[in-house]
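ugh ok fine here u go
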Amino acid sequence: METKTTVIPQEALQQQLAVCGQIRAYWSSRTITPRAYVETYGCQQNEADSERLRGLLSESGYAITDTAEGADVVIMNTCAIREHAEQRVFGNLGALTHTKRRHPEQKIFLCGCMAGQEQVVDRIKKSYPHVDGVFSTHHLWQFPQLLHQVLSTGKRTYFTEDEPGSIAEGLPQLRDNKLKAWVSIMYGCNNFCTYCIVPYVRGRERSRKSEDILHECRTLIENGVKDITLLGQNVNSYGKDLDEGIDFSDLLAKIAQLPSTFLVRFMTSHPRDASKKLFDTMAAYPKIAKQLHLPFQSGSSRVLKAMNRHYDREKYLETIRYAKSLMPELVLTSDVIVGFPGETEAEFEETISLIREVRYDSLFTFIFSPRAGTPAASMPDPTSKEEKNRRFDRLCAVQNGISEEIHNAYIGKTMLCLIDGVDKEQLTARTEGGRLVRLSGPESLVGTFAQIKITGASTWSLTGELSKQ
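structure:
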């Protein structure tokens, strides 16, 4: 794969928006308001990509719907991190034969990380004839062209050429949430962990210009957004490919100095690049949420080396200790893989002991899933599926116990929370650290920060009441 970053010229993006106008005119001439459905799998970056797809569809005259049934366009924005996710996509993609049979003009597209794998594209071509188009993450900005081509020719179309990745500024976005927003600050990854497919399907690291990010954040805040999450496969690498002399900590500080009341958080951080400067910056600015997602993946230094993670157990723990010394209230979450090829029982116990030492608020836990084309897929893996499941269940039990203890310690505390919605006649809110709180109160409070006294807790959420102080 090439490594040169492509910045899409504004002229090319304007051409795509012009195509959106042509599609809108096509439907207008038929006096039809078409409907579109976008289904998203995987990470927050995929969610952000889906917002751009909905934005392009809206520009093309489509009304966004919440079901594939009867939709004129269906897009499946996919994840390739685990085999289970892929099989789920293939199953749901097959089920769309029925919606298309009932609505023959329906156009079906597959995009996202799965679309960046040659074997997936070949499988779609051979076994899923009802799919009209496939496009990789590098070609998202060209979706109007792809859609127009399918509508005008009726032929299956593929935009899946291997590219280093690009940056396309100014694509329209249709966001689901008026209070919270994802902001991508960079794309791709250079780390090549031996188990991970991301660098192969999303390309090399490439950073957006800081002025474009600041402009987007400023606009969001002016429009009432209260919680911004900065996104990147490894946000700590931000700026290394730019000539601005700004690293991620500098960018975070600039955003935190914007006026108005809001919180900014970020994910994901890679431990190899999590610097003391980052934690100093987090501690220094009240608008930076005291929340850190720092994947450790394994508690064994030998396994970490086999994963090509570029840090060992002690380096990770040293990083956590420093962060906690500055921010004792820091909410910590992480990712962990159980059953990496060759992991022994003793090495698994090292993972358990690290979890007990750090005491995470919550974990995202995974059983190793081999990804074709990655080095780990060909590593000897003698541990049985049953044994991996046993380890996984034990790890979850340990973490659930810790989560419950941490949540119980919230009871009696009063915390500033963002009231962000209504669920089953109760208000929902989030603490600065992202913990879910349920409480009673008027719906008019949605969109405001309020002091909430925590009155109850479970493993996964808190209950509270509006503070009378």
